[in-house]
């Protein structure tokens, strides 16, 4: 299967989230009437976000032939908690969704450390070849990262304005993850391993 262009994958990754942000900002402070029901800007943006994410996920699967467990878990939780927010017209369910996702990831990574199973490496080793010690260190750090993001999400949505939370979800969380990855560049270099190419094995 031909690998899709990088920009296509980036559009599929960021498109639904940026659409969510745009819909929220365009309707911020207003009520949106739909099907005889009035929705807040956040609930209406969630209503738009769910099918957009589902469509992007299906397209990614059709183009690449695979989905990461994180992508599947994210879609399921968005459908469940986003659907509850729309159904009950209550944005709180969608706001706690990142907390549930990050606690789930932190718990799975913590469990993999305890049981000495390299689940993270099994998912990412093709893109980031490292030795076993490197994967153990990265797994522990990522477990703490996700735990910190879960706590941060609770603090922001419970103690700050809805607009602040939308900014945090759309831009704050990705920036934190990006900075985390950049901060671990030394770890990647120190524990990287060479993967034999097809030419080397002939």
UniProtKB/TrEMBL annotation:
InterPro entries: YciB. It is a multi-pass membrane protein. Pfam families: IspA. Keywords: Cell inner membrane, Cell membrane, Membrane, Transmembrane, Transmembrane helix. It is found in: Cell inner membrane. The chain crosses the membrane at residues 7-27, 39-59, 71-88, 100-119, 140-160, 166-187. Its main location: membrane. Plays a role in cell envelope biogenesis, maintenance of cell envelope integrity and membrane homeostasis. Belongs to the YciB family. PANTHER family: INNER MEMBRANE-SPANNING PROTEIN YCIB, INTRACELLULAR SEPTATION PROTEIN A-RELATED. This is Inner membrane-spanning protein YciB. It comes from Paracoccus acridae. The lineage of its organism: Bacteria, Pseudomonadati, Pseudomonadota, Alphaproteobacteria, Rhodobacterales. The gene is yciB.
């Amino acid at each position: 299967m031909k690998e899709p262009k990088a920009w296509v994958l980036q559009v599929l990754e960021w498109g639904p989230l940026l659409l969510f942000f745009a819909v929220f900002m365009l309707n911020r402070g207003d009520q949106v009437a739909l099907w005889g029901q009035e929705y807040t800007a956040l609930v209406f943006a969630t209503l738009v976000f769910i099918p957009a994410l589902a469509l992007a996920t299906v397209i990614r699967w059709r183009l690449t032939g695979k989905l990461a467990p994180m992508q599947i878990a994210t879609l399921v939780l968005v459908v469940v908690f986003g659907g509850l927010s729309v159904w009950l017209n209550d944005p709180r369910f969608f706001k706690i969704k990142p907390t549930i996702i990050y606690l789930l990831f932190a718990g799975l990574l913590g469990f993999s450390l305890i049981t000495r199973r390299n689940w993270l490496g099994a998912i990412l080793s093709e893109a980031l070849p490292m030795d076993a010690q490197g994967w153990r260190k990265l797994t522990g750090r990522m477990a703490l990262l996700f735990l910190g993001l879960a706590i941060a999400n609770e603090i922001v949505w419970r103690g700050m304005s809805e607009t602040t939370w939308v900014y945090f979800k759309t831009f704050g969380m990705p920036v934190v993850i990006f900075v985390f990855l950049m901060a671990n560049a030394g770890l990647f270099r120190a524990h990287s391993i060479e993967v034999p190419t097809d030419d080397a094995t002939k």
